[in-house]
Design brief:
Layout (H helix, E strand, L loop, with lengths): L2 E4 L4 E5 L4 E4 L5 E5 L5 H13 L3 E6 L5 H4 L2 H8 L3 E3 L1 H8 L2 H8 L20 E2 L8 E5 L8 E5 L3 E3 L7 H6 L8 H14 L4 E3 L9 H25 L4 H12 L5 H20 L3 E6 L2 E6 L4
Parallel strand pairs: 4-5, 5-6, 6-7, 10-11
Antiparallel strand pairs: 1-2, 2-3, 3-4, 8-9, 9-10, 12-13
Length: 296
């Protein structure tokens, strides 16, 4: 059940599985920040907006993952509102099948067709020329290639999936990450710039102590990097062997979708370690394995 929580005179959020922001600077026109996982959530957002006597001015998507854009189509169909996002994320929002291609490594056909992996398409305005006064965006790359955060002029910061809390990491110990290097840089940026600010993560409680969340997310990423590196140090390992051992380490039982989500993240960890010169790829007998770099 969604609950409308007011943070300031202009800024609210809807407490939900994926938190949804609302910025209403004049008490009439509402800007929605992310729209949840499907059309049902989109319709609930519209109902709450109408009950408050507001009108939808537009949607801002922090990034293109299905649980953040799933309500776009239903809201846009009813209101013809613009949807603003970064250039990188625009293509995925308009062509959601691309998300499955990233996870699978090729066209997944119908293998990743559920609502958590493929939202309904919606039309976007790539870039920020229509961003209203009072809102600004800032890059939070890593979890997704073009993820942004949204700042309101009353100093509330919506940060998408930049961090998880301890409970979220316990449930998802291989927290999805597209670009490990950018993800770690984003955590450092949050530490420097948002401590003491009112921050709304998409999957953690509202906080003014962002450092406690960045510390948990950083520790999780570094532990996973160390785990992957140690496995390859014991013996050269294929990507499938790395997945098997990491999943077993955490006691995970993956279905097909979760396997692809976690495996994609682990491929990113391997790529990061190769980029740091700590692992290297070796192809022998047409089998790709990763081994620890010989530094002697």
């Amino acid at each position: 059940m969604m609950e409308l929580i007011r943070l300031t005179e202009k800024t609210c959020y809807l407490r939900n599985v994926t938190q949804i922001g609302l910025y209403v600077p004049d008490g009439r026109q509402a800007w929605i920040i992310d729209t949840g996982v499907d059309k049902i959530v989109g319709k609930r957002i519209l109902k709450i907006v109408k009950e408050q006597g507001w009108q939808v001015a537009g949607i801002i998507n922090t990034h293109s993952h299905a649980d953040h854009i799933g309500g776009n189509a239903a809201i846009q169909e009813q209101t013809q509102c613009p949807i603003l996002c970064s250039r990188v994320e625009s293509g995925f929002i308009e062509s959601p099948q691309l998300e499955g291609a990233v996870l699978y490594g090729g066209c997944p056909d119908g293998l990743l067709s559920g609502k958590f992996y493929r939202a309904q398409p919606s039309q976007t305005q790539s870039g920020w020329s229509q961003l209203p006064p009072g809102l600004s965006v800032f890059p939070l790359y890593g979890h997704a290639g073009g993820m942004v955060g949204v700042r309101t002029d009353d100093e509330v910061y919506f940060i998408g999936d930049a961090v998880l809390d301890e409970a979220g990491l316990a449930k998802h110990p291989i927290s999805y990450t597209y670009d490990v290097r950018a993800f770690l840089e984003t955590l450092d940026w949050l530490d420097r710039n948002l401590q003491g600010k009112t921050v709304v993560p998409s999957h953690a409680p509202v906080t003014t102590d962002i450092v406690s969340l960045t510390a948990a997310s950083r520790r999780n990423a570094l532990e996973n990097l160390a785990l992957v590196e140690s496995l390859c140090a014991q013996a050269p390992a294929t990507q499938e062997e790395i997945c098997k051992q990491v999943f077993d380490h955490y006691g995970l039982e993956c279905d097909f979708g979760m396997y692809q989500l976690n495996a994609s993240t682990l491929r990113g960890y391997v790529a990061y370690l190769c980029g740091c010169g700590r692992l290297e790829p070796v192809v022998e007998g047409n089998i790709l394995r990763f081994c620890q770099t010989d530094l002697t």
